[in-house]
Amino acid sequence: MSSSTSTVPTTFLIISDTHNLSVDDTRASAIELPTPQADVLLHCGDLTQMGTHIAFRNALTMLSSIPAELKLVIAGNHDLELDQSDWLRRTAQPGSVEHRHNHAYAHMLMNSTDAYIANVTYLTEGTHTFTLSTGATFKIYVSPYTPVCGGWAFGYWHFEDRFNPAHLRQLGTISIAEEPIPDDVDIIMTHGPPQGVLDECRAGSVGCPNLLHAVKRVRPMMHCFGHIHEASGAEIVDWNDRGEVEAVEGGRETGKLGREEWKRSAVHEYFEEAEIDNPYPEAFEWTERRGYRKGETTLAVNASILDGQFRPSNPPWRIRLDLKRAESWGWRGSMHG
Length: 337
What we know:
Structural class: alpha/beta
Largest sheet: 14 strands, mixed
Radius of gyration: 19 Å
Number of strands: 20
Order of helices and strands: HEEHEHHHEEEEEEEEEEHEEEEEEE
C-alpha cells in the first residue's frame, strides 16, 4: 500500500504548564487564543498552580477555546487534588480532614459534562489508543509522575523506576511500574523530561534517567513533556547505539545543528540532539520527508508555556505527523492497555 493511503497527515498542538492561565490572560501571552486549528491537542500537565476546583474549571474553559477534534490532558505535580494517594496523605493531618473529598470532586470535574463540552479527555497513567474522524490512529503512553522535588504531587524517588518492567530496569533501581511503557507506542506524553533532553534549569540537568532509559528503549515518533519551564523548546534526538556522534539535520530551514553548549557526558554517549526553532503558528513537519526515521529518531518537545519567571512567554508547538490509517473506523475511541 502506498504511503499516501497508509498514512494520514495529522496536526498536533502541544502545550504544558499553563498554571491557571485563563482565557483573558492569553491576550497578553504567546498562546493567543483561539489557536490555529489542530487535529489533536496535547496538554502535558500543570493545568493549575495548586489545584482547587475553581482552577480546574477555569482550565477547562481555557481548553475549550482551543479548536481540536481530540484534546488529551494529563495532570502535573502542581495539580494536587488529582493525585489520590498524595491527597489522602495530605488531608489525613489534623485540620485537613474536611478537604478529603476534594480529590473525588477534582477527578469528577475532569471527567464531567464540562470536560465533555470542552472536548477534553483526561488521561491517567497508562497506554491509550485513539482513532480520529480522518482515520488516523495512534497509540500514546502518558504519565503525570516526576521525580520528587519539594512537597508536590505525583512524585517518585530517584531509585524508583515507573517506566520499565523489572527485567528491563537499570542497575541500582527498583521497578515500581504498574503501567510500563510498551515498545509499540507512537507518542509518549509525560509531565517531566528524560535526563539530558530539554531538562536544564538553575539546578542543572534534572530529568529522569529511568524515563530516558525507557524512551531510548521504545524510540517513539514523538515525546512531549513540560515541567522544566526554562528548557522550553524542541529537539530531534538521534539515537546512536555505537556511542559515536552522528550528524543530524534539523528537518527544515529553521533547524540548527547541535547545542552551543554541548555536553560530552555519559548521558549523551548514545544520542545526539539538534535544536529546532519554533515556527508557530506554522506547523513543524516531523515526517520521513523531514528527517524522521522509525526506530532511529525521536522528536522531543518541552511545551512549557510559562517561562522560568512564570510568565506565559513561550508559544505552543504545532507538529505535523504522518499517522497510520486505521483499517476501519467510525467514531473516536479509547483503548486502555
